[in-house]
């Protein structure tokens, strides 16, 4: 696949990197980001936060966290730009903020394949850049400094909880199906779903695992919901369902699709990833198939991205290779005490 930049068609290389605690943790791997502290900048700083799917609640929260951190640091402005799912728009908006001479860039790419272009453009302009949420690499495979979560580790937490609930329910593989929904060309999603499957199998103690139905989605609630209908039709004799996915959109969409198909909430074990949508049923006191979720704080990632960029720009610290935010499993009884704000 190719994307255009300034009217020139540039080939891109598909690469992926596993992101591996909120204070920043170096893996020892060479990074394509600047290894040294930037020449100190005084006065006001402007940081561009370019996000895919900026209307999703997680990314709204991430932007809020970035702006709140900027206020806390003082004399820092954050420009938030929604890229939707358009990789070409990501390149053009990147060009725009570079032309505006922003001081730093945090980007959540719509497609990891544009990583080399993104990294090269920022490097040529002398602007420090971090990749948030979805890791990107240069053409020779060197990762950009990363702020976000460990995708495989997050998935394992989801799978571990799903296995715990499955065993407690006393269900069997014969009358149960697992539905996993994710955007299948996004490596970050693949890492999460693979981690969930591995931890689930380990969590049930080596017994026979239910068969898995894999739903390819665009990571939205609507697409996951619509595709669940067909899966339910093809498996009408199945009594119990275990659900997970790349994000809360997939998991809640699938659970809603099952419930719309007359599957009782007691026959659904849905474990979300994000908690920002699963919490809505809990907040409303509804009986739901959304039994638990891994709370990933978007605000923490936005805050960390602005902080590490500012520290670099002020000449205080080099950009960490990896800054990984904390996660925790929550449910209807614990989500409020976790600090999760359910809007």
Automatic annotation (TrEMBL):
Family matches, as InterPro entries: Bact_Solute-Bind_Prot2 (IPR050555), Peripla_BP_I (IPR028082), SBP_2_dom (IPR025997)
Domain of life (superkingdom): Bacteria
Keywords on record: Signal
SUPFAM superfamilies: Periplasmic binding protein-like I
Keyword Cell division: no
All residue ranges annotated as the Periplasmic binding protein domain in the record: 47-317
Compartments, record wording: Cell envelope
Primary subcellular site in the record, as a coarse category: other
Pfam families assigned to the protein according to its UniProt record, in alphabetical order: Peripla_BP_4
Span of the signal peptide: 1-28
Similarity comment text for this entry: Belongs to the bacterial solute-binding protein 2 family.
Protein name: L-arabinose transport system substrate-binding protein
Organism field: Kribbella aluminosa
């Amino acid at each position: 696949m190719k994307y255009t930049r300034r009217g020139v068609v540039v080939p891109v290389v598909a690469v992926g990197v596993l992101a591996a605690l909120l204070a920043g943790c170096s893996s020892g791997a060479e990074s394509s980001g600047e290894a040294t502290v930037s020449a100190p900048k005084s006065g006001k700083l402007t940081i561009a936060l370019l996000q895919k799917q900026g209307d999703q609640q997680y990314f709204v929260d991430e932007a809020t966290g970035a702006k709140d951190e900027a206020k806390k640091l003082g004399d820092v402005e954050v420009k938030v730009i929604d890229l939707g799912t358009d990789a070409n728009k990501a390149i053009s908006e990147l060009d725009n903020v570079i032309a505006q001479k922003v001081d730093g860039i945090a980007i959540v790419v719509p497609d990891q394949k544009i990583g080399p272009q993104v990294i090269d453009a920022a490097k040529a302009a002398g602007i420090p850049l971090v990749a948030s949420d979805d890791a990107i690499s240069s053409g020779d495979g060197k990762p950009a400094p990363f702020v976000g979560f460990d995708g495989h580790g997050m998935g394992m937490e989801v799978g571990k909880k799903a296995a715990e609930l499955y065993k407690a329910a006393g269900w069997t593989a014969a009358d149960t199906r697992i539905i996993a929904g994710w955007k299948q060309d996004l490596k970050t999603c693949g890492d999460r779903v693979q981690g969930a499957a591995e931890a689930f199998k380990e969590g049930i103690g080596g017994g026979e695992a239910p068969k898995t139905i894999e739903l390819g989605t665009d990571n939205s609630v609507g697409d996951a919901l619509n595709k669940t209908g067909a899966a339910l039709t093809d498996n009408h004799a199945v009594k119990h369902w275990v659900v997970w996915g790349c994000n809360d959109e997939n998991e809640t969409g699938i659970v809603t699709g099952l419930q719309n198909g007359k599957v009782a909430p007691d026959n659904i074990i849905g474990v979300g990833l994000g908690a920002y949508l699963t919490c809505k049923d809990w907040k409303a006191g509804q009986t739901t198939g959304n039994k638990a979720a891994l709370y990933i704080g978007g605000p923490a990632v936005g805050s960390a991205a602005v902080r590490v960029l500012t520290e670099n720009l002020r000449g205080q610290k080099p950009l960490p290779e990896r800054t990984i935010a904390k996660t925790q499993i929550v449910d209807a009884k614990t989500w409020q005490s976790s600090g999760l704000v359910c809007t």
